[in-house]
Design a protein that fits this description.
Strands 1, 2, 3, 7, 8, 10 and 13 form a seven-stranded mixed sheet that branches. The chain has one helix and 13 strands, in the order H-E-E-E-E-E-E-E-E-E-E-E-E-E. The protein is 24% helix and 31% strand.
């Protein structure tokens, strides 16, 4: 009996199935490759933006660092540091800044806390040599135009801030210390100074 079914149709159908399978696999592969490419591009873009933000948000030291002697004891109670933005820097909020202190007398504080009385209130009580007053505050804002300057603890362009950092009783004569200012965004500003052998009420530190 003659076979009325043709195998040519099945061959064409099989070829179509294989072709469709290849197209689907190629589409999925292309989607994965494009997705990975977009993700890589976005990651690279975010990295560039973060790098630019970090590089453009940096502080620098302005002028001298001054040490203020304790009223009755022979160590520096405070260090006054004036900071400003680097040229072309973007405004920086110092309210979240982390300040740390170390010296060669094993004095160490990983985070000199914000002044409990308020960031702009530098009337810290006498610590009596216990180091309990080791806090930092913004003692003065310079070159801020009244009514137009950014309020709060934001360091603006062409402006300066005098930061008062409380020092521990280990900040005695001939001691070398380092204060690190780590803003929320931007590079760390390390300041190293040596306390002179004889202390006066106020002295520049070098």
């Amino acid at each position: 009996m003659k076979n009325i079914y043709s195998e040519d149709a099945f061959t064409g159908l099989e070829a179509a199935i294989v072709l469709i399978a290849f197209v689907v696999v190629a589409a999925v592969f292309s989607y994965v490759v494009l997705g990975a490419g977009f993700f890589t591009s976005q990651t690279a873009q975010a990295t560039v933006h973060t790098g630019v933000q970090q590089a453009s948000s940096s502080m620098e030291l302005v002028g001298n660092v001054y040490g203020i002697k304790h009223d009755t004891l022979n160590y520096l109670k405070y260090a006054n540091v004036t900071v400003a933005l680097t040229a072309g820097g973007t405004p920086m909020d110092l309210s979240a800044m982390v300040v740390s202190y170390t010296d060669n007398n094993q004095g160490h504080n990983a985070n000199v806390k914000n002044n409990s009385a308020g960031l702009f209130d530098c009337s810290v009580a006498d610590d009596g040599g216990t180091g309990a007053g080791q806090e930092w505050c913004i003692a003065q804002k310079i070159n801020y135009v009244t009514g137009t300057a950014t309020t709060g603890a934001t360091l603006d362009n062409n402006a300066q801030m005098v930061i008062m950092v409380g020092l521990p009783p280990s900040a005695t004569p001939n001691t070398k210390f380092t204060i690190n200012f780590q803003p929320a965004v931007g590079a760390v500003l390390p300041i190293s100074r040596t306390i002179p052998g004889g202390l006066t009420a106020v002295q520049p530190l070098y």
